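Exercise: predict the fold of this chain.
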Amino acid sequence: MQRNKGPGPDTTDGFWLDDAGHRRWLLGEAMRLFDVFGASLRPGGGFAQLDLAARPLPDSVDELHATTRMVHSYSLGLLAGRPDAGAMVDAGMRHLWRAHRDADHGGYLWAVKDGVPFDDRKLAYGHVFVLLAAASARMAGHPDADRLIDDVWAVQEARFWDDEAGLYRDEWSRDWAVLSAYRGMNANMHAAEALLAAHEATGREVYLERAGRILAFFLRRIAPRNAWRLPEHYDSDWQIDRAYDGDPVFRPAGTTPGHSFEMARLLLQHWDLVGRPGDGSPDLARALVKTALTDGWNRKDGGLAYTLDFDGRPAIADRLWWPVTEAIGAVAALIKLERDAADEIWYRRLWSFADAHFIDHEQGGWFAEIDAAGRPVETRFRGKPDIYHALQAALLPAMPGLSRAAAALPGALVDERR
């Protein structure tokens, strides 16, 4: 695979986002990702995980978030002028409806294997990604997108939405008989992401209003009371559960700096969509980003800690790819608002670190984790687990605005090809 030139332009002056060469590099990195992850399509339906050499792994377990992220990502690929992405979107949409969708009880199964239930929990985290996939597919013109939006929205309304709290509950049993007492930020953060995309895809105001309620709880209530850090876990009354230590991949203890970056970017997207009111959203976003970078960045070796304790000290210091991608997106959003030299330093630092340590220049894609010496390892993830985080790090900074990236994508990328 041909190596994509490094992220930096030839000159050290100015801001990389203003440089046509850097934007072409971003597009090139996105196209390489589409090339690599095309190998994940399985003839029998669904998508395989890729190993470190970007070859399909034999494991046939399909998790809902993985299927939906592929649909979302390749919908962006269609918008970016990749007609071959259509086959990936079609396959993913079929698999969501025929394999993940529970025809007996409604809703969507967390994991299926060979087309039958493997993990039959009903998770808000998975359902909001179904909405994201459907919204992105609608923007790409897929004929089944409206059916999927309507179906998953009805389930979210009936089972997950807590209107009194203005937040989503997390987990049900397959037959909806048992609701877990656990409540979490992660599912709600991605709910805000999906709701904003659904609003952009359909124009329905309810999606925008719901996203605003979620963001207000975490960023206007929780963050200021916790030194601009975001506790991940809550009880059924939406009180912070500081003792919780669950799934180390999806529900690690403490706080997660990568999620602060995502929340900051989503807050600015929402603020932009509602007309940029004078509500202090840019200052809130900046406080979150600054705190997460200060707490999470490894000053000796670079990279970001996976988790922190409630005082901002590294708890799990492992350096994963996705917090770096999300930091790139958040810092790029701040630069779009204001050309601040300190933000530019971080933007360059983040991309330079990713280019040196996470991007696989031989096989394509990103390594998921590096060890203390900066070498790829497989301790938390096998191979190259997804396209979603890296793709958005490449595409979102290239867009001119803070919102409606899918609408701006075709024109922006055509311009950069010239």
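Check your answer against the key: Confidence is low (pLDDT under 50) at residues 414-418.
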